[in-house]
From TrEMBL:
Domain Phospholipid/glycerol acyltransferase: start-end pairs: 73-190
EC number per UniProt: 2.3.1.51
Pathway entry: Lipid metabolism
One Pfam family it belongs to: Acyltransferase
Lineage, highest ranks first: Bacteria, Bacillati, Bacillota, Clostridia, Lachnospirales
Signal peptide stretch: none
InterPro entries, sorted: AGP_acyltrans, Plipid/glycerol_acylTrfase
Protein name: 1-acyl-sn-glycerol-3-phosphate acyltransferase
SMART domains linked: PlsC
Amino acid sequence: MIRFIFVAATVILFLILSIPLMLVEFLIGKKNRCLRDVQSLAVIQCVFRLILWMAGVKITVKGRENVPADQAVLYVGNHRSYFDILVGYVTVPSLTGFVAKKEMEKIPLLSSWMKLVNCLFLDRVNLKEGLKTILAGIEQVKRGVSVWIFPEGTRNKNDDPLDMLTFKEGSLKIAEKSGCYVVPVALTGTAEVFEQHFPKIKPSHVTITFGEPFHTKELPPEVKKFPGAYTEEQIKAMLRLQLAEGQNL
């Protein structure tokens, strides 16, 4: 419980004490959006690295060279833990915003920082509002900010990491409409930090693999109609490799 208390206290203190900094970033953003994005991401990455260190998380990153260095992409990953987001933010090579559930937009201070780091809020019930989020994601990619989405729609609580929830095909619309690369991402070890023994936080070795990027329009005809299912299989293959390598350590 000590780790949980320290992590929770760090999050609460940051949200409260960073209010002046948040206001400064909002003002900077009115004149220089790019500078605000870079500075805000740097702040969040610093805080997330501290939290991961306090939680005892060690990260192995594989395939980062697969991520195109000169353009925004759509990251598509499996989702088992809140720590997926922390690990994602400290390992991406450039500006990136996560797609979060609409309910998080109601959380004071936290939602403000999420907006500063280009997070999008998705209404999973209202299709019209969901479409607006997709359109916002397309515009975000076009201005050079990558988007990270979890097509399972929610955290997968199944014991077996390979037993993923069905990927929602609409989650890849941002890539289809913007023409950006899709980068599959596989994560193992994050649920072992927190979710598997809530409310305790325990050390864990997390592996994150960035897979081979692809354009949805260049997929073989037999899978082009279902890019979500195709991406799901790519991620499963990476997860199998991660799990096999972990067993051999």
